[in-house]
Design goal:
Length: 331
C-alpha cells in the first residue's frame, strides 16, 4: 500500500514511521531541510529529537508529489492550516482514496470537525479520524498504546484498521465520528485547566475534580453536537483526557502549567515548537456553548484566562464558587 502522510510534526512523523515498516510510506515536510534530514539521516531533530526513524521512511518537500502517489492519505496538519493544505491538493488527490485526519481540534469560525472539512474540500473521499490517547514519543519508542479509527464507512474502517495496526499499537474502530473527534478536540481545553492546577500546586484532589467535571462538560457539549455519551467514556474521551491531562509530554497541559506559574500566554507559545490545539479550541468551545445554551464553566473560565481577563489563580478561586448541582448530570 502506498501511504502519504502530510505533515512531519511529532505525531505525523510517528505514524509515518510505524506505517513505513509494512507499507511504502512518504511523509511531506513543510519545514526546509526536514525532508532531507528524515530521508538521509533518519532523524527529525525539530519535533522528535533523540529518536531514530526507520530506514524505510522517505520524506519530500513536494506536496504534489506526496499527494499524487497516495492510495491512503493521512493529514497530520494543525487545524489552523488544515483547510489551506487540502485546498492546495484538491486537484491532485487520486479518486476515492480515504483521507485520515490526525488533527485534534475544531476549525475556528466554521466550528467544523476535521472530517467535515475533508467532506467539504474533498467530496467523494471517505473521511476518517485517528484519535485516542496517543503520545507520539511513547509510541515511537515501542510502548503499548491503543487508538481509534473513526469513520461511518464500515468497510473503510476495517481496511484502515488492518493498515494501521502495528506491533503494540492496538487499533479499534468506532462509527461515532462526531463523538470521537469532539472528545479529542475538547479534552485539550480541560488539559489546560489541569495544567494550571499543577502550576498553582493546588493539590491532586482539586486536579482530579477539575478533570472529572471537565469530562462532564466535554460530554455535555459533545452529545449536544451529535456524539454518543458512551463514546466519551472510551479511548477518545476519558482515555485521551487522562493522557493529556496527566502526561508531562502534553503540550496543552504544559501551557496550563506555565500559566499557573504566572507566565504570559504569548511568551509560552513563542517558545513552543509544536502547536497546543487547546488554545484555539477553547474559543470555539465557548462559542458553541453560547450557540447551544450550555454553561460550560470550566471552558469559559479557561477562555477568560487565555484572553487575559483573569489570572490562573483567580480562575481557580472562581471555580471553587461554582454551585454544586447533581453529580450524575448533565448528560
Amino acid at each position: 500500500m502506498r501511504i502519504s502522510v502530510l505533515g512531519a510534526g511529532s505525531w505525523g512523523t510517528t505514524m509515518a514511521a510505524l506505517l513505513s515498516k509494512r507499507h511504502d510510506t512518504l511523509v511531506w515536510a513543510r519545514e526546509p531541510g526536514l525532508a532531507e534530514e528524515i530521508s538521509d539521516k533518519h532523524h527529525n531533530g525539530l519535533f522528535l529529537p533523540g529518536h531514530t526513524l526507520p530506514d524505510t521512511l522517505r520524506a519530500t518537500g513536494d506536496l504534489v508529489e506526496a499527494t499524487e502517489r497516495a492510495q491512503v492519505l493521512v493529514i497530520g496538519i494543525p487545524t489552523h492550516a488544515f483547510r489551506a493544505v487540502l485546498d492546495g491538493i484538491r486537484d491532485h488527490v487520486p479518486p476515492w482514496i480515504p483521507v485520515v485526519s490526525l488533527a485534534k481540534g475544531l476549525e475556528q469560525g466554521s466550528h467544523l470537525r476535521m472530517t467535515q472539512v475533508v467532506e467539504q474540500v474533498l467530496p467523494g473521499h471517505p473521511p476518517a479520524a485517528l484519535t485516542g490517547p496517543n503520545l507520539a514519543k511513547e509510541i515511537l519508542s515501542g510502548k503499548a498504546a491503543a487508538t481509534v479509527i473513526a469513520t461511518e464507512n464500515a468497510t473503510v474502517a476495517k481496511t484502515l484498521q488492518e493498515i494501521l495496526q502495528r506491533g503494540l499499537l492496538r487499533v479499534y474502530t468506532n462509527g461515532d465520528v462526531a463523538g470521537c473527534e469532539l472528545g479529542g478536540a475538547l479534552k485539550n481545553v480541560i488539559a489546560i485547566a489541569a495544567g494550571m492546577a499543577e502550576g498553582l500546586a493546588v493539590g491532586d484532589n482539586t486536579r482530579a475534580a477539575v478533570i472529572t467535571r471537565g469530562l462532564a462538560e466535554l460530554t455535555q457539549l459533545g452529545v449536544a453536537m451529535g456524539g454518543r455519551a458512551a463514546t466519551f467514556a472510551g479511548l477518545t474521551g476519558l482515555g485521551d483526557l487522562m493522557a493529556t491531562c496527566l502526561s508531562q509530554q502534553s503540550r496543552n497541559r504544559h501551557v496550563g502549567e506555565e500559566l499557573g506559574k504566572g507566565r504570559a500566554l504569548p511568551d509560552i507559545l513563542d517558545e513552543m515548537v509544536m502547536v497546543a490545539e487547546g488554545v484555539r479550541t477553547t474559543q470555539v468551545a465557548v462559542e458553541l456553548g453560547d450557540r447551544l445554551g450550555l454553561e460550560l464553566p470550566i471552558c469559559r473560565t479557561i477562555g477568560r484566562v487565555l484572553d487575559g481577563e483573569m489570572t490562573a489563580k483567580e480562575a481557580y478561586a472562581g471555580l471553587r464558587n461554582i454551585p454544586a448541582g447533581e453529580e450524575a448530570g448533565p448528560w
